[in-house]
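Query structure, 522 tokens:
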């Protein structure tokens, strides 16, 4: 069924293969020669054919991020890999290979047309992210289970499906099964699904499809609810206040506190714990709400900064582009004048003038870039000051809230200690009305045992509060540091790239002038 190894040595997609394919498939004639001389950047290529090359392994395609169409058919590929960076791919042909498992396509979310015809695939799977899929050709494979086709119901835009040549096509109800479970498919195995087939499908599978739809609706509802919960949790996490909208901190403090749990059998302790819980949860909830509001303010500040930054860069680029546009008009005129003149002195004067204009352009472009650097530096400084002030104010608020949490714990500890000591005295005098459980009575053998147990619990509670505060503050500071590091790094990279562009452009203009003069000398 699939292509076998032959006398040609199996190959891997390498740079030499790619360069050759680009040249052969690129512009022809004069345009092709120019492209070959100047070189074609991989990132500019939108279509690529790598057919009949005995390719065994897909590799070295990570730079082709603009690729929309890729043909890898008629090779000996065994595994789908190396395609993750091709995020703009719309059309992919992997037919006539030796692929046995569908994988490695998760990132190709724009894919509309996929051909896996004539391979060794036995199960349709791992296509969940390809929700834009419209055409799927997977004929001449090893598909044998008709039930596996139900997997394709998730692709609401699928209109053309080719399964011909698989053993499942021999099933008695093959066509009406497909028509029933994939009602939006228009073309099946190169033919349009006719109305008679659809009617037969409805008659045979009506109740099964209704049940399937019900189950899918329930599954989708569950997925939506889960996604909503995950989105909400991520918001809380981004605001640094996850698990602070309830009793999580309180519960964590008492989760491993066996001694305090024993003391709940003492009169007054349950009421004391309930009051402590209510007050601590109130503090956490207040911090949670403030955290969300402060997060929204920070996000607005960040968005405003990047908008201002983008507008400044765009405006500067516009002025630079205008300078270059005007210069190009002058340059073409100068070049034509140099070509047409026969007076060497005049030619020299024209060349000098053009070189001077190139120097002027370079200076003007560099001046614009320096102005932009100064402007962006001011914008970044203002942003850094504002966002730092916001984070500092939030951290101070956090520290204030956790200080109150510690006060609540100290108060709870003191009251619990009072109850325990009073109970100890009553135990010593045999004045207790109710008999204490054995594990509780063990704590009241003497005063030191009781106090040590309660103090250990107190230390544990304070440690939980301290750790939650430290974790929150650390994450705020880390976020701020990483944000500003990224902002400064991106600006540095932008500046270096722009300077390089200016230098490369003016060098190119001078080279063109030298080429022209060399041609005139011949």
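Result returned for the query:
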């Amino acid at each position: 069924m699939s292509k076998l190894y032959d006398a040609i040595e199996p190959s891997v997609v390498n740079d030499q293969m790619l360069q050759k394919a680009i040249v052969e498939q690129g512009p022809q004639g004069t345009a092709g020669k120019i492209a070959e001389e100047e070189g074609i950047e991989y990132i500019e290529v939108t279509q690529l054919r790598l057919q009949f090359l005995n390719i065994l392994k897909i590799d070295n395609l990570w730079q082709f991020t603009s690729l929309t169409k890729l043909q890898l058919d008629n090779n000996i590929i065994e595994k789908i890999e190396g395609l993750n960076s091709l995020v703009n791919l719309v059309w992919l042909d992997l037919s006539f290979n030796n692929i046995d498992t569908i994988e490695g396509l998760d990132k190709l979310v724009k894919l509309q047309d996929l051909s896996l015809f004539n391979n060794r695939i036995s199960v349709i799977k791992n296509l969940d992210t390809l929700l834009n899929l419209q055409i799927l050709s997977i004929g001449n494979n090893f598909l044998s289970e008709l039930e596996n086709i139900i997997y394709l119901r998730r692709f609401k835009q699928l209109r053309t499906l080719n399964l011909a040549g698989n053993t499942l096509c021999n099933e008695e109800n093959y066509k009406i099964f497909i028509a029933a479970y994939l009602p939006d498919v228009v073309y099946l195995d190169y033919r349009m699904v006719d109305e008679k087939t659809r009617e037969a499908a409805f008659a045979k599978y009506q109740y099964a499809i209704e049940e399937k739809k019900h189950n899918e609706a329930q599954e989708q509802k569950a997925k939506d609810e889960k996604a909503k919960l995950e989105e909400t949790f991520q918001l809380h996490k981004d605001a640094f206040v996850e698990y602070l909208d309830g009793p999580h901190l309180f519960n964590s403090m008492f989760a491993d506190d066996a001694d305090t749990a024993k003391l709940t059998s003492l009169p007054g302790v349950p009421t004391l714990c309930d009051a402590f819980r209510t007050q601590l949860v109130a503090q956490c909830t207040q911090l949670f709400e403030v955290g969300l509001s402060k997060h929204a303010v920070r996000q607005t500040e960040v968005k405003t900064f990047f908008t201002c930054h983008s507008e400044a860069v765009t405006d500067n680029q516009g002025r630079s582009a205008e300078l270059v546009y005007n210069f190009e008009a002058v340059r073409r005129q100068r070049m034509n004048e140099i070509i047409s003149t026969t007076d060497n002195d005049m030619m020299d004067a024209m060349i000098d003038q053009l070189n001077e204009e190139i120097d002027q352009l370079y200076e003007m472009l560099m001046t614009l870039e320096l102005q932009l650097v100064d402007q962006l530096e001011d914008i970044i400084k203002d942003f850094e000051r504002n966002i730092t002030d916001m984070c500092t104010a939030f951290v101070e608020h956090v520290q204030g809230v956790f200080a109150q949490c510690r006060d609540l714990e100290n108060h709870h500890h003191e009251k619990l200690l009072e109850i325990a000591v009073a109970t100890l005295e009553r135990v010593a005098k045999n004045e207790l009305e109710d008999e204490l459980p054995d594990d509780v009575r063990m704590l009241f053998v003497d005063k030191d045992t009781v106090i040590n147990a309660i103090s250990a619990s107190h230390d544990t509670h304070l440690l939980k509060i301290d750790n939650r505060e430290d974790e929150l503050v650390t994450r705020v500071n880390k976020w701020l540091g990483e944000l500003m590091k990224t902002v400064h790094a991106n600006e540095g990279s932008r500046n270096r790239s722009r300077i390089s562009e200016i230098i490369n452009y003016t060098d190119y203009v001078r080279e063109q002038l030298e080429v022209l003069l060399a041609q005139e000398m011949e």
